[in-house]
Amino acid sequence: MDVKLVERVKDIGRLKSVSALLDWDQETYMPAGGVAARAEQYALIETLAHQKLVSEETRTLLERAEGTVDADDFVAETIVRETRRSYDRAAKLPAELVREIAHTSSLAKDAWAKARAESRFADLSPWLTKLIDLKKQVAERIGYAAEPYDALMDEFEPGATAANVDPVFRELREKTVPLLNRVMTARPGPDPAILDRHYPRDRQEKICRRMAEAIGFDFHSGREDVSVHPFCMTIGGPGDVRITTRYLKNFLPAALFGTLHECGHALYEQGLPKEHVFTPMAEAASLGIHESQSRMWENLVGRSRAFWKYHYAHVESLFPEALRDESLDSFHGAINAVRPSFIRVEADELTYNLHIILRFELERAMIRGDLRVGDIPAAWNEKFTRMFGITPENDAQGCLQDIHWSMGAFGYFPTYTLGNLYAAQFFAQARQDIHGLDDRIAANDHAALLGWLRERIHRHGKRFRPGELVQRVTAKPLSIEAFVGYITKKVEAIYSI
Protein backbone atom coordinates (compact mmCIF):
# COMPACT_ATOMS: atom_id res chain seq x y z
CA MET A 1 0.00 0.00 0.00
CA ASP A 2 1.33 3.45 -0.94
CA VAL A 3 2.24 5.09 2.37
CA LYS A 4 2.12 8.57 0.85
CA LEU A 5 -1.43 8.05 -0.41
CA VAL A 6 -2.59 6.72 2.96
CA GLU A 7 -1.07 9.69 4.77
CA ARG A 8 -2.73 12.08 2.34
CA VAL A 9 -6.09 10.36 2.84
CA LYS A 10 -5.58 10.64 6.59
CA ASP A 11 -4.80 14.36 6.30
CA ILE A 12 -8.09 14.87 4.47
CA GLY A 13 -9.83 12.87 7.20
CA ARG A 14 -8.16 15.00 9.86
CA LEU A 15 -9.41 18.18 8.22
CA LYS A 16 -12.91 16.69 8.09
CA SER A 17 -12.66 15.90 11.80
CA VAL A 18 -11.84 19.55 12.51
CA SER A 19 -14.90 20.50 10.48
CA ALA A 20 -16.95 18.07 12.58
CA LEU A 21 -15.65 19.64 15.78
CA LEU A 22 -16.69 23.09 14.57
CA ASP A 23 -20.11 21.73 13.68
CA TRP A 24 -20.56 19.97 17.02
CA ASP A 25 -19.59 23.13 18.91
CA GLN A 26 -22.08 25.22 16.93
CA GLU A 27 -24.88 22.80 17.74
CA THR A 28 -24.06 22.57 21.46
CA TYR A 29 -22.07 25.28 23.27
CA MET A 30 -21.18 28.04 20.83
CA PRO A 31 -22.69 31.42 21.78
CA ALA A 32 -25.20 32.82 19.30
CA GLY A 33 -22.87 35.70 18.49
CA GLY A 34 -20.34 33.35 16.94
CA VAL A 35 -22.47 32.28 13.96
CA ALA A 36 -20.95 34.60 11.34
CA ALA A 37 -17.34 33.79 12.29
CA ARG A 38 -18.14 30.07 12.51
CA ALA A 39 -19.53 30.11 8.98
CA GLU A 40 -16.20 31.49 7.74
CA GLN A 41 -14.18 28.96 9.76
CA TYR A 42 -16.31 26.06 8.54
CA ALA A 43 -16.11 27.20 4.93
CA LEU A 44 -12.30 27.49 5.14
CA ILE A 45 -11.81 23.97 6.53
CA GLU A 46 -14.20 22.42 4.00
CA THR A 47 -12.42 24.26 1.18
CA LEU A 48 -8.99 23.11 2.36
CA ALA A 49 -10.16 19.49 2.59
CA HIS A 50 -11.67 19.73 -0.90
CA GLN A 51 -8.52 21.28 -2.38
CA LYS A 52 -6.32 18.60 -0.83
CA LEU A 53 -8.57 15.84 -2.17
CA VAL A 54 -8.73 17.13 -5.76
CA SER A 55 -5.08 18.22 -5.99
CA GLU A 56 -2.70 16.99 -8.67
CA GLU A 57 -0.66 15.20 -6.03
CA THR A 58 -3.68 13.19 -4.84
CA ARG A 59 -4.53 12.26 -8.44
CA THR A 60 -0.97 11.11 -9.11
CA LEU A 61 -0.74 9.07 -5.91
CA LEU A 62 -4.14 7.52 -6.59
CA GLU A 63 -3.31 6.51 -10.16
CA ARG A 64 -0.02 4.99 -9.02
CA ALA A 65 -1.74 3.03 -6.24
CA GLU A 66 -4.43 1.73 -8.60
CA GLY A 67 -1.77 0.16 -10.73
CA THR A 68 -0.01 -1.62 -7.89
CA VAL A 69 -2.66 -2.53 -5.30
CA ASP A 70 -2.71 -6.23 -4.36
CA ALA A 71 -6.12 -7.74 -5.04
CA ASP A 72 -5.79 -9.78 -1.82
CA ASP A 73 -5.11 -6.70 0.31
CA PHE A 74 -8.68 -5.67 1.13
CA VAL A 75 -7.54 -2.73 3.27
CA ALA A 76 -5.56 -1.21 0.42
CA GLU A 77 -8.29 -2.06 -2.09
CA THR A 78 -10.94 -0.36 0.07
CA ILE A 79 -8.87 2.78 0.64
CA VAL A 80 -8.01 3.11 -3.03
CA ARG A 81 -11.56 2.37 -4.27
CA GLU A 82 -13.25 4.76 -1.86
CA THR A 83 -10.67 7.48 -2.38
CA ARG A 84 -11.22 7.18 -6.11
CA ARG A 85 -14.96 7.53 -5.58
CA SER A 86 -14.48 10.61 -3.40
CA TYR A 87 -11.94 12.08 -5.80
CA ASP A 88 -14.14 11.59 -8.86
CA ARG A 89 -17.09 13.29 -7.17
CA ALA A 90 -15.06 16.12 -5.65
CA ALA A 91 -13.00 16.84 -8.77
CA LYS A 92 -16.18 17.81 -10.56
CA LEU A 93 -16.94 20.50 -7.98
CA PRO A 94 -15.05 23.81 -8.02
CA ALA A 95 -13.63 24.94 -4.69
CA GLU A 96 -15.78 28.07 -4.76
CA LEU A 97 -18.96 25.97 -4.92
CA VAL A 98 -17.79 23.83 -1.98
CA ARG A 99 -16.95 26.96 0.01
CA GLU A 100 -20.31 28.55 -0.81
CA ILE A 101 -22.27 25.48 0.30
CA ALA A 102 -20.34 25.23 3.57
CA HIS A 103 -20.74 28.93 4.31
CA THR A 104 -24.42 29.04 3.38
CA SER A 105 -25.35 25.90 5.31
CA SER A 106 -23.64 27.16 8.46
CA LEU A 107 -25.71 30.34 8.36
CA ALA A 108 -28.85 28.48 7.26
CA LYS A 109 -28.72 26.15 10.28
CA ASP A 110 -28.83 29.16 12.57
CA ALA A 111 -31.69 30.63 10.52
CA TRP A 112 -33.53 27.31 10.74
CA ALA A 113 -33.26 27.19 14.54
CA LYS A 114 -34.72 30.69 14.79
CA ALA A 115 -37.41 30.04 12.18
CA ARG A 116 -38.43 26.83 13.93
CA ALA A 117 -38.63 28.61 17.30
CA GLU A 118 -40.91 31.26 15.76
CA SER A 119 -42.69 28.80 13.45
CA ARG A 120 -42.05 31.04 10.43
CA PHE A 121 -41.03 29.19 7.29
CA ALA A 122 -40.61 32.50 5.47
CA ASP A 123 -37.51 33.21 7.60
CA LEU A 124 -35.79 30.08 6.25
CA SER A 125 -37.16 30.36 2.73
CA PRO A 126 -34.38 32.52 1.18
CA TRP A 127 -31.68 30.28 2.64
CA LEU A 128 -33.46 27.17 1.41
CA THR A 129 -33.86 28.67 -2.06
CA LYS A 130 -30.12 29.29 -2.21
CA LEU A 131 -29.21 25.83 -0.91
CA ILE A 132 -31.48 24.08 -3.40
CA ASP A 133 -29.85 26.05 -6.22
CA LEU A 134 -26.38 25.12 -4.95
CA LYS A 135 -27.26 21.43 -4.64
CA LYS A 136 -28.74 21.43 -8.12
CA GLN A 137 -25.39 22.71 -9.33
CA VAL A 138 -23.71 19.84 -7.50
CA ALA A 139 -26.02 17.29 -9.14
CA GLU A 140 -25.43 18.70 -12.61
CA ARG A 141 -21.67 18.68 -12.19
CA ILE A 142 -21.53 15.17 -10.74
CA GLY A 143 -23.94 13.79 -13.31
CA TYR A 144 -26.76 11.27 -13.18
CA ALA A 145 -28.49 8.73 -15.39
CA ALA A 146 -32.14 9.53 -14.68
CA GLU A 147 -32.73 12.55 -12.42
CA PRO A 148 -30.59 15.02 -10.44
CA TYR A 149 -31.84 13.70 -7.11
CA ASP A 150 -29.91 10.47 -7.81
CA ALA A 151 -26.58 12.30 -7.70
CA LEU A 152 -27.42 13.71 -4.28
CA MET A 153 -28.77 10.46 -2.82
CA ASP A 154 -25.70 8.56 -3.99
CA GLU A 155 -23.57 10.71 -1.65
CA PHE A 156 -25.27 9.15 1.37
CA GLU A 157 -26.25 5.70 0.07
CA PRO A 158 -23.83 4.59 -2.68
CA GLY A 159 -25.69 3.06 -5.59
CA ALA A 160 -29.15 4.17 -4.49
CA THR A 161 -31.40 5.84 -7.05
CA ALA A 162 -34.90 7.24 -6.89
CA ALA A 163 -35.99 4.62 -9.40
CA ASN A 164 -34.97 1.69 -7.19
CA VAL A 165 -35.98 3.26 -3.87
CA ASP A 166 -39.42 4.46 -4.98
CA PRO A 167 -41.00 1.00 -5.56
CA VAL A 168 -39.67 -0.23 -2.20
CA PHE A 169 -41.22 2.77 -0.47
CA ARG A 170 -44.51 2.34 -2.33
CA GLU A 171 -44.69 -1.32 -1.33
CA LEU A 172 -43.94 -0.38 2.25
CA ARG A 173 -46.67 2.26 2.25
CA GLU A 174 -49.14 -0.24 0.81
CA LYS A 175 -48.40 -2.59 3.73
CA THR A 176 -48.36 0.16 6.36
CA VAL A 177 -51.58 2.07 5.69
CA PRO A 178 -53.98 -0.91 6.00
CA LEU A 179 -52.32 -1.97 9.26
CA LEU A 180 -52.55 1.61 10.52
CA ASN A 181 -56.26 1.68 9.64
CA ARG A 182 -56.82 -1.53 11.58
CA VAL A 183 -55.09 -0.04 14.61
CA MET A 184 -57.08 3.18 14.43
CA THR A 185 -60.35 1.22 14.59
CA ALA A 186 -59.13 -1.07 17.38
CA ARG A 187 -60.11 0.35 20.74
CA PRO A 188 -59.18 0.43 23.49
CA GLY A 189 -55.43 0.22 23.03
CA PRO A 190 -52.51 1.11 25.29
CA ASP A 191 -52.57 4.55 26.85
CA PRO A 192 -49.62 6.61 25.59
CA ALA A 193 -50.68 9.55 27.77
CA ILE A 194 -48.69 8.12 30.68
CA LEU A 195 -45.57 9.27 28.82
CA ASP A 196 -46.84 12.86 28.80
CA ARG A 197 -46.72 13.26 32.57
CA HIS A 198 -44.10 15.22 34.50
CA TYR A 199 -40.61 13.72 34.22
CA PRO A 200 -37.93 15.95 35.84
CA ARG A 201 -34.90 16.47 33.64
CA ASP A 202 -32.27 15.58 36.24
CA ARG A 203 -33.80 12.14 36.65
CA GLN A 204 -34.14 11.68 32.90
CA GLU A 205 -30.40 12.30 32.65
CA LYS A 206 -29.75 9.49 35.12
CA ILE A 207 -31.76 6.87 33.25
CA CYS A 208 -30.32 7.94 29.89
CA ARG A 209 -26.79 7.54 31.23
CA ARG A 210 -27.66 4.16 32.73
CA MET A 211 -29.15 2.83 29.48
CA ALA A 212 -26.30 4.15 27.36
CA GLU A 213 -23.78 2.34 29.56
CA ALA A 214 -25.94 -0.80 29.60
CA ILE A 215 -25.89 -1.26 25.84
CA GLY A 216 -22.15 -0.59 25.62
CA PHE A 217 -21.55 3.12 24.94
CA ASP A 218 -18.01 3.91 26.13
CA PHE A 219 -18.04 7.26 27.95
CA HIS A 220 -14.24 7.18 28.08
CA SER A 221 -14.37 7.54 24.30
CA GLY A 222 -17.51 9.64 24.07
CA ARG A 223 -19.88 12.06 25.77
CA GLU A 224 -23.54 13.07 25.71
CA ASP A 225 -24.74 16.67 25.52
CA VAL A 226 -27.92 18.55 24.62
CA SER A 227 -28.95 20.04 21.27
CA VAL A 228 -32.12 21.19 19.50
CA HIS A 229 -31.93 18.18 17.17
CA PRO A 230 -30.27 15.00 18.55
CA PHE A 231 -27.25 13.75 16.62
CA CYS A 232 -24.09 11.64 16.78
CA MET A 233 -20.79 13.05 15.58
CA THR A 234 -17.35 11.47 15.40
CA ILE A 235 -14.55 13.94 16.07
CA GLY A 236 -11.41 11.81 16.32
CA GLY A 237 -12.30 8.32 15.21
CA PRO A 238 -13.54 5.61 17.61
CA GLY A 239 -11.83 7.38 20.51
CA ASP A 240 -13.98 10.53 20.35
CA VAL A 241 -17.62 9.92 19.50
CA ARG A 242 -20.16 12.47 20.76
CA ILE A 243 -23.91 12.21 20.99
CA THR A 244 -26.65 14.64 21.95
CA THR A 245 -30.23 14.32 23.05
CA ARG A 246 -33.01 16.65 24.14
CA TYR A 247 -35.08 16.64 27.31
CA LEU A 248 -38.80 17.41 27.39
CA LYS A 249 -40.16 17.50 30.92
CA ASN A 250 -43.61 16.36 29.81
CA PHE A 251 -42.61 13.74 27.22
CA LEU A 252 -40.26 10.99 28.42
CA PRO A 253 -39.56 9.21 25.10
CA ALA A 254 -37.76 12.20 23.55
CA ALA A 255 -34.67 11.76 25.72
CA LEU A 256 -35.10 8.06 26.39
CA PHE A 257 -35.24 6.86 22.82
CA GLY A 258 -33.24 9.77 21.46
CA THR A 259 -30.35 8.56 23.62
CA LEU A 260 -30.73 4.92 22.58
CA HIS A 261 -30.94 5.97 18.94
CA GLU A 262 -27.82 8.12 19.01
CA CYS A 263 -26.02 5.47 21.08
CA GLY A 264 -26.72 3.03 18.27
CA HIS A 265 -24.90 5.34 15.89
CA ALA A 266 -22.11 5.80 18.43
CA LEU A 267 -21.64 2.06 18.99
CA TYR A 268 -21.05 1.69 15.26
CA GLU A 269 -18.50 4.50 15.30
CA GLN A 270 -16.76 3.16 18.41
CA GLY A 271 -16.61 -0.28 16.78
CA LEU A 272 -14.82 0.83 13.62
CA PRO A 273 -11.16 -0.29 13.43
CA LYS A 274 -9.01 2.18 15.36
CA GLU A 275 -5.89 1.29 13.40
CA HIS A 276 -7.45 2.75 10.24
CA VAL A 277 -8.79 6.01 11.68
CA PHE A 278 -9.16 8.86 9.16
CA THR A 279 -9.37 6.39 6.26
CA PRO A 280 -12.41 4.75 4.59
CA MET A 281 -11.70 1.54 6.50
CA ALA A 282 -12.78 3.37 9.64
CA GLU A 283 -15.91 4.88 8.12
CA ALA A 284 -19.45 3.50 7.98
CA ALA A 285 -20.59 1.62 4.88
CA SER A 286 -23.39 4.12 4.27
CA LEU A 287 -25.88 6.27 6.13
CA GLY A 288 -28.54 3.60 5.64
CA ILE A 289 -26.33 1.00 7.33
CA HIS A 290 -25.54 3.57 10.02
CA GLU A 291 -29.24 4.14 10.58
CA SER A 292 -29.79 0.39 10.89
CA GLN A 293 -27.62 0.41 13.99
CA SER A 294 -29.44 3.32 15.65
CA ARG A 295 -32.91 2.01 14.85
CA MET A 296 -31.98 -1.48 16.02
CA TRP A 297 -30.92 -0.32 19.47
CA GLU A 298 -33.72 2.22 19.73
CA ASN A 299 -36.56 -0.03 18.59
CA LEU A 300 -35.83 -3.71 18.18
CA VAL A 301 -33.95 -3.73 21.48
CA GLY A 302 -35.07 -0.55 23.28
CA ARG A 303 -38.81 -0.93 22.73
CA SER A 304 -38.85 -4.66 23.36
CA ARG A 305 -40.56 -6.12 26.42
CA ALA A 306 -37.36 -8.00 27.22
CA PHE A 307 -35.39 -4.76 27.55
CA TRP A 308 -37.91 -3.20 29.91
CA LYS A 309 -38.28 -6.37 31.95
CA TYR A 310 -34.91 -5.37 33.36
CA HIS A 311 -35.03 -1.55 33.24
CA TYR A 312 -38.63 -0.71 34.14
CA ALA A 313 -38.25 -1.06 37.92
CA HIS A 314 -35.46 1.52 37.88
CA VAL A 315 -37.45 3.95 35.73
CA GLU A 316 -40.45 3.50 38.02
CA SER A 317 -38.28 4.29 41.06
CA LEU A 318 -36.96 7.47 39.39
CA PHE A 319 -40.43 8.73 38.49
CA PRO A 320 -42.76 7.45 41.23
CA GLU A 321 -45.24 10.29 40.80
CA ALA A 322 -45.72 9.55 37.10
CA LEU A 323 -45.48 5.74 37.10
CA ARG A 324 -46.51 4.57 40.58
CA ASP A 325 -49.72 2.93 39.37
CA GLU A 326 -48.40 1.72 36.02
CA SER A 327 -47.31 -1.84 35.31
CA LEU A 328 -44.56 -3.08 33.02
CA ASP A 329 -47.24 -4.08 30.53
CA SER A 330 -48.85 -0.64 30.50
CA PHE A 331 -45.47 1.08 30.08
CA HIS A 332 -44.43 -1.30 27.32
CA GLY A 333 -47.75 -0.72 25.59
CA ALA A 334 -47.38 3.05 25.91
CA ILE A 335 -43.91 3.19 24.35
CA ASN A 336 -45.16 1.07 21.46
CA ALA A 337 -48.54 2.76 21.00
CA VAL A 338 -49.42 3.76 17.48
CA ARG A 339 -50.19 7.44 17.68
CA PRO A 340 -49.91 9.38 14.41
CA SER A 341 -47.99 12.52 15.28
CA PHE A 342 -46.60 15.56 13.53
CA ILE A 343 -42.99 15.17 14.64
CA ARG A 344 -40.82 12.57 12.91
CA VAL A 345 -38.41 12.00 15.79
CA GLU A 346 -41.36 11.27 18.09
CA ALA A 347 -43.15 8.97 15.64
CA ASP A 348 -44.07 5.40 16.47
CA GLU A 349 -42.47 2.57 14.52
CA LEU A 350 -45.48 1.94 12.30
CA THR A 351 -45.94 5.51 11.05
CA TYR A 352 -42.28 6.58 11.06
CA ASN A 353 -41.63 5.45 7.51
CA LEU A 354 -44.58 7.49 6.25
CA HIS A 355 -42.75 10.58 7.53
CA ILE A 356 -39.74 9.60 5.43
CA ILE A 357 -41.75 8.81 2.32
CA LEU A 358 -43.36 12.26 2.53
CA ARG A 359 -39.94 13.97 2.69
CA PHE A 360 -38.56 11.78 -0.09
CA GLU A 361 -41.39 12.80 -2.42
CA LEU A 362 -41.06 16.50 -1.57
CA GLU A 363 -37.27 16.49 -1.98
CA ARG A 364 -37.47 14.91 -5.41
CA ALA A 365 -39.96 17.55 -6.47
CA MET A 366 -37.77 20.37 -5.12
CA ILE A 367 -34.65 19.18 -6.91
CA ARG A 368 -36.57 18.52 -10.14
CA GLY A 369 -37.95 22.05 -9.96
CA ASP A 370 -41.56 20.86 -9.69
CA LEU A 371 -42.04 22.40 -6.23
CA ARG A 372 -41.23 26.03 -5.48
CA VAL A 373 -39.81 26.86 -2.06
CA GLY A 374 -42.70 29.16 -1.23
CA ASP A 375 -45.15 26.30 -1.83
CA ILE A 376 -43.42 23.83 0.50
CA PRO A 377 -45.60 24.45 3.62
CA ALA A 378 -48.84 23.92 1.69
CA ALA A 379 -47.49 20.87 -0.15
CA TRP A 380 -46.26 19.42 3.14
CA ASN A 381 -49.60 19.90 4.88
CA GLU A 382 -51.58 18.46 1.98
CA LYS A 383 -49.47 15.30 1.81
CA PHE A 384 -49.37 14.95 5.59
CA THR A 385 -53.13 15.19 5.89
CA ARG A 386 -53.60 12.59 3.18
CA MET A 387 -51.12 10.16 4.76
CA PHE A 388 -51.85 10.63 8.47
CA GLY A 389 -55.36 12.05 8.66
CA ILE A 390 -54.18 15.03 10.72
CA THR A 391 -52.98 18.48 9.66
CA PRO A 392 -50.05 20.41 11.18
CA GLU A 393 -51.18 23.53 12.99
CA ASN A 394 -48.03 25.50 12.15
CA ASP A 395 -44.70 25.32 10.33
CA ALA A 396 -42.81 24.10 13.40
CA GLN A 397 -45.06 21.04 13.49
CA GLY A 398 -44.67 20.67 9.74
CA CYS A 399 -41.93 21.53 7.29
CA LEU A 400 -39.60 23.25 9.79
CA GLN A 401 -39.18 20.34 12.20
CA ASP A 402 -35.99 18.85 10.69
CA ILE A 403 -32.55 20.43 10.36
CA HIS A 404 -31.54 18.51 7.23
CA TRP A 405 -32.63 20.93 4.51
CA SER A 406 -30.84 23.81 6.24
CA MET A 407 -27.71 21.66 6.06
CA GLY A 408 -28.21 21.13 2.34
CA ALA A 409 -28.58 17.40 3.04
CA PHE A 410 -30.96 16.58 0.19
CA GLY A 411 -31.02 12.82 -0.45
CA TYR A 412 -30.37 12.01 3.21
CA PHE A 413 -33.92 11.23 4.34
CA PRO A 414 -34.38 7.97 2.37
CA THR A 415 -31.56 6.43 4.39
CA TYR A 416 -33.76 6.48 7.50
CA THR A 417 -36.29 4.05 6.06
CA LEU A 418 -33.57 2.00 4.39
CA GLY A 419 -32.05 1.82 7.86
CA ASN A 420 -35.29 0.46 9.32
CA LEU A 421 -35.37 -2.25 6.68
CA TYR A 422 -31.69 -3.14 7.16
CA ALA A 423 -32.16 -3.19 10.96
CA ALA A 424 -35.04 -5.64 10.88
CA GLN A 425 -33.21 -7.94 8.49
CA PHE A 426 -30.00 -7.83 10.55
CA PHE A 427 -31.83 -8.41 13.82
CA ALA A 428 -33.75 -11.38 12.41
CA GLN A 429 -30.40 -12.91 11.47
CA ALA A 430 -28.91 -12.13 14.89
CA ARG A 431 -31.84 -13.97 16.51
CA GLN A 432 -30.96 -17.03 14.47
CA ASP A 433 -27.25 -16.80 15.26
CA ILE A 434 -27.35 -15.86 18.98
CA HIS A 435 -28.93 -18.47 21.21
CA GLY A 436 -31.45 -17.02 23.67
CA LEU A 437 -31.01 -13.43 22.49
CA ASP A 438 -34.25 -12.22 24.11
CA ASP A 439 -33.30 -13.83 27.42
CA ARG A 440 -29.90 -12.11 27.27
CA ILE A 441 -31.56 -8.74 26.67
CA ALA A 442 -33.93 -9.35 29.58
CA ALA A 443 -30.87 -10.01 31.77
CA ASN A 444 -29.27 -6.71 30.65
CA ASP A 445 -26.62 -8.66 28.77
CA HIS A 446 -26.06 -6.91 25.45
CA ALA A 447 -22.50 -8.09 24.87
CA ALA A 448 -23.48 -10.92 22.53
CA LEU A 449 -25.51 -8.69 20.22
CA LEU A 450 -22.91 -5.93 20.23
CA GLY A 451 -20.17 -8.48 19.56
CA TRP A 452 -22.19 -9.92 16.67
CA LEU A 453 -22.62 -6.44 15.17
CA ARG A 454 -18.94 -5.65 15.63
CA GLU A 455 -17.92 -8.86 13.88
CA ARG A 456 -20.48 -8.81 11.07
CA ILE A 457 -20.77 -5.09 10.34
CA HIS A 458 -18.65 -2.59 12.30
CA ARG A 459 -15.15 -3.95 11.71
CA HIS A 460 -15.56 -3.88 7.93
CA GLY A 461 -15.81 -0.10 7.61
CA LYS A 462 -16.41 0.70 3.95
CA ARG A 463 -15.04 -2.61 2.70
CA PHE A 464 -18.47 -3.63 1.41
CA ARG A 465 -21.17 -1.55 -0.23
CA PRO A 466 -24.60 -1.66 1.49
CA GLY A 467 -26.21 -4.25 -0.78
CA GLU A 468 -23.20 -6.54 -0.60
CA LEU A 469 -23.00 -6.22 3.18
CA VAL A 470 -26.68 -7.13 3.65
CA GLN A 471 -26.24 -10.13 1.38
CA ARG A 472 -23.15 -11.30 3.29
CA VAL A 473 -24.75 -10.90 6.72
CA THR A 474 -28.23 -12.29 5.99
CA ALA A 475 -27.72 -14.33 2.80
CA LYS A 476 -30.58 -12.31 1.26
CA PRO A 477 -30.93 -9.06 -0.66
CA LEU A 478 -32.67 -6.20 1.10
CA SER A 479 -36.45 -6.46 1.24
CA ILE A 480 -39.35 -5.17 3.33
CA GLU A 481 -40.21 -8.71 4.48
CA ALA A 482 -38.40 -8.74 7.84
CA PHE A 483 -39.61 -5.29 8.86
CA VAL A 484 -43.22 -5.89 7.86
CA GLY A 485 -43.26 -9.22 9.68
CA TYR A 486 -41.73 -7.68 12.80
CA ILE A 487 -43.98 -4.62 12.99
CA THR A 488 -47.15 -6.55 12.13
CA LYS A 489 -46.53 -9.14 14.83
CA LYS A 490 -45.79 -6.46 17.45
CA VAL A 491 -48.75 -4.21 16.61
CA GLU A 492 -51.23 -7.06 16.37
CA ALA A 493 -50.13 -8.32 19.79
CA ILE A 494 -50.36 -4.91 21.47
CA TYR A 495 -53.74 -4.07 19.96
CA SER A 496 -55.15 -7.62 19.96
CA ILE A 497 -56.13 -7.42 16.31
Can you offer a commentary on this structure?
- With 497 residues, this protein is mainly α.
- It folds into two domains: 3-143, no CATH class; 162-495, Neurolysin, domain 3, CATH 1.10.1370.
- Helix content is 64%, strand content 3%.
- The protein contains 21 helices and three strands.
- The chain has helices spanning 3-28, 35-53, 56-66, 74-90, 95-118, 121-142, 148-156, 162-184, 201-215, 253-271, 287-301, 305-318, 320-323, 328-335, 349-368, 376-388, 414-433, 437-442, 447-456, 466-474, 481-495, and strands at 222-226, 232-234, 241-245.
- The chain has a three-stranded mixed β-sheet with strand order 1-3-2, sandwiched between helices.
- Strand 2 and strand 3 (241-245) form a beta hairpin.
- Helix 3 (56-66) runs antiparallel to helix 4 (74-90) and helix 17 packs across helix 21 (481-495).
- The protein is globular and about 70 Å long.
- The N and C termini lie far apart (59 Å).
- The model has no long low-confidence stretch (mean pLDDT 96).
